[in-house]
Amino acid sequence: MRHAGPGGEHSPQRTAGAVIRAYVALTKPRIIELLLITTIPTMFLAAGGFPSLWLIVATVVGGYLAAGGANTLNMYLDRDIDAKMKRTKNRPLVTGVVTPRAALIFGIVLSIFSSVWLGVLVNWASAALALGAILLYVVFYTMILKRRTSQNIVWGGIAGCMPVLIGWSAVTGTVSWTAVLLFLVIFFWTPPHYWPLAEKFSKDYADAGVPMLPVVAARSNVARQMIMHTVFMVASSLAIIPLGHTGWVYGVSAVAVGAWFLFLVIRYAVRVRRGLTGKKLGPMTVFHGSITYLTLLFVALAIDPFVVL
């Protein structure tokens, strides 16, 4: 049942189920799914097979808690611009299902607990990397970059690259050049993944005063930068092969899915040059294609240690 709030407005439903769903939503579980897709295959590669099940579970849970804490603090800090954007107007802090104070406490608790969890149950190297990822996302991206520069997602995306380092260090206790190259794959993947989404919701970002590149730059400029990042991404994925940790399954897959995604980005650039807009431009085809690319690449990475010829 809804009750009248201040000024005669209706407050949102606060049933137990609605509150639980709101707190889960604060962690942005759909984004976390993508982060975990990169963590587990990296652990398989680092171990040259199956790590212990307990290590996988402990690392995944710790990673989820860390990302959830960072995402919650991101929503707390961005609640003013979320209220101005159609895409985010139903987030819990905008609707009022969760109060800002409660979200702040929840985000801090998750962040601290995740670091302790990883430190005690995995290792302190992974805990330090997770804490670094939280600070990068909350402070470097959300507080400093997001509202100030059109390159926000490029450098702010570093936080999203950290799960591969966490997964590798969870198994080995350190970070290798292979892990660094996987980090670079995701670093260069982030702009051609996110900018098409920003293109689709460019009016939202403009209304909220967030200078995403598709809002402040010509589409042709955005398309050129997407091609550049994609080329570096594919090059980073192929540079892993000579290091000797991967076999033919990963090698063939990296070439195939890299060529396919590069085709999608180049086709997008051609459509931009032809002056197409909206559905004919097809930014969401590139966005969804980027998710497919990363998933297939890391699935191949997970399978590779078990296929020997």
Automatic annotation (TrEMBL):
Reaction(s) the record says it catalyses: heme b + (2E,6E)-farnesyl diphosphate + H2O = Fe(II)-heme o + diphosphate
Transmembrane segments: 31-47, 53-77, 98-118, 124-145, 152-171, 177-195, 226-243, 249-269, 281-303
Pathway field: Porphyrin-containing compound metabolism; heme O biosynthesis; heme O from protoheme: step 1/1
Compartment(s): Cell membrane
UniProt keyword DNA damage present: no
Lipid bilayer topology: Multi-pass membrane protein
Highest taxon of the lineage: Bacteria
PROSITE patterns the UniProt entry points to: UBIA (PS00943)
Keyword Transcription regulation in annotation: no
Gene3D superfamilies given in the database record: UbiA prenyltransferase
NCBIfam families: cyoE_ctaB, PRK04375.1-2
UniProt function note: Converts heme B (protoheme IX) to heme O by substitution of the vinyl group on carbon 2 of heme B porphyrin ring with a hydroxyethyl farnesyl side group.
Family recorded in the similarity comment: Belongs to the UbiA prenyltransferase family. Protoheme IX farnesyltransferase subfamily.
Note: Carbon 2 of the heme B porphyrin ring is defined according to the Fischer nomenclature.
PANTHER family, per database record: 4-HYDROXYBENZOATE SOLANESYLTRANSFERASE, PROTOHEME IX FARNESYLTRANSFERASE, MITOCHONDRIAL
Name under which the protein is recorded: Protoheme IX farnesyltransferase
Protein species of origin: Brachybacterium alimentarium
